[in-house]
Design goal:
The chain is 78% helix and 0% strand. The chain is mostly helical. Helix 2 (17-45) crosses helix 3 (47-65).
Amino acid sequence: MLDELKRAFEQAQQQPNEAQHDLAQRILDWIAEQRDEREWGAIISSPAGQETLERLAAEAREEIAQAKTRDLSNLL
């Protein structure tokens, strides 16, 4: 473990329980987000993921060409 992280945990231990709970939840959420990002990256970069993205892009282009879509820019 990095010295900075050890110091952070040492200081966190001195905080009230509620603050420790909040910090722990933030850290766990961050770790889960990082894991999800890695998994999503692996899925998208895989051959099957690339095929799916290409198929979805082709479907979207076809729907645009057939005027099956509508402009949503005025909703923003």
